[in-house]
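Following up on my earlier thread - several people asked me to post the actual chain instead of describing it. Fair enough. Here it is, all 237 residues.
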Amino acid sequence: MPPETSNNEVVRLERAVKIYSQPGAKVEVHALRGISTTIRRGEYVAIVGASGSGKSTLMNIIGCLDRLTAGTYWLYGQDVSRLNDDQLSDVRGQRIGFVFQNFNLIPSQTVLENLETPMFYQGVPARLRRQRALLMAERVGLTDRLHHRPNELSGGQQQRVAIARALMNEPVVLLADEPTGNLDSKTGAAVLDLLDELHAGGMTLVMVTHDPDVARRCERIIELKDGLITRTRAIRG
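Reply from S.P.:
Thanks for posting it. Predicted structure:
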């Protein structure tokens, strides 16, 4: 357990460093330069910064899609910075939900099948997968689209499927990477309303965005520049 941790702490990074380099190349990219921060249970946090600031790298570290070069990362009290690839995969499947700008739905599968996929990979029995999928589809207002494939849905509907899929395994944190980036303003607002509802229900959300209006819907903003946190400011809450 990290020092001075509590059950209210979902993410804790201490002196997090990420350096990208290619074999034989002399140039190293220092994407994160010793970041320390925490995110507590139920918080709604935006990560903002210019292109190359490190925000996507930070999201990938929090989501266990990448590993630190140096420093420590605790997720819900577990030191995940020391885990191997298989262990990280288990953590991703069990504790983290992802929502991406491009939806990342499986084109050949129906809405129902897309929703069931995360639980399938966790070995959950078919009956329980189906029950959970129906519940999540109802939660995001898509019970009338269960047997449609992604190309038969609007962008907003696809993103709602992606959000429902991210919730299937009851994650401790939901990560959203530019979730409205491919949507028009009206549809994007509806997706943000859904994220607001999830937060109001107690979900911990972390969102990467370049849009200041979107960031201001969160409780707290973490600003990055050149791989460092330059400012953390509360918006509300």
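The chain has one domain: 41-67+83-234. That should answer part of your original question.
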